[in-house]
Amino acid sequence: MSAGPGFSSKQEDSVTDETRETIAFLNRLLEAERAGVKVLARLIPDIRNETVAELARSFLRDEGMNCQVLKTMIENMHGTVSPAVGDFVGKVEALSSMEEKLDLLVRGQEWVARQIRKNRSMALTAPDRLFLESIKVQHEHNVDALKDALNG
Ligand SMILES: [Fe+2]
Predict the structure, then answer these.
(1) What is the pTM of this model?
(2) Interval between CA 14 and ligand 1 midpoint (Å)
(3) Which of 9, 31, 90, 94 could form a disulfide with 86 if both were Cys (CB 3.0 to 4.6 A apart)?
(4) 9 C-alpha vs ligand 1 centroid, how far in Å?
(5) According to DSSP H, which parts of 5-151 are helical?
(6) Which of 11, 35, 50, 32 is CA-nearest to residue 89?
(7) What is the structure's pLDDT at 4?
(8) Is residue 6 part of a domain?
């Protein structure tokens, strides 16, 4: 019998629903961060505003770091790491102008911060809780910085 997505079978008897839900949540975030990496890597060569390009390069480093942190958290919980990339990539590619793409990038960052804010009661260790909080604050910080750069 399968334990469902996010779990390998040998752990299925010992895990709580809360742990299962937490791993599913972390996998959703991982997929979103992976999508962020892909979107940023494709956008950066076409960004003409050097301030915005520099920010995008730092976001790309952040997204890559987050993927590694989230993957490690899932593995430490004995969960199965999702190989998927979030559908955000297709949504950004469907837009024609750089302005629209960057606007959606801002909203994507806000979405991640909001998801973490909404999922407070999770089966996480204290250090992992701080890692997640840090990813939330990083996204809020990046949203502010990109909005300033786009409007200034
Ligand atoms: Fe992100």
Answers:
(1) 0.89
(2) 31
(3) 31
(4) 30
(5) 17-43, 50-76, 88-93, 98-118, 126-151
(6) 35
(7) 53
(8) no
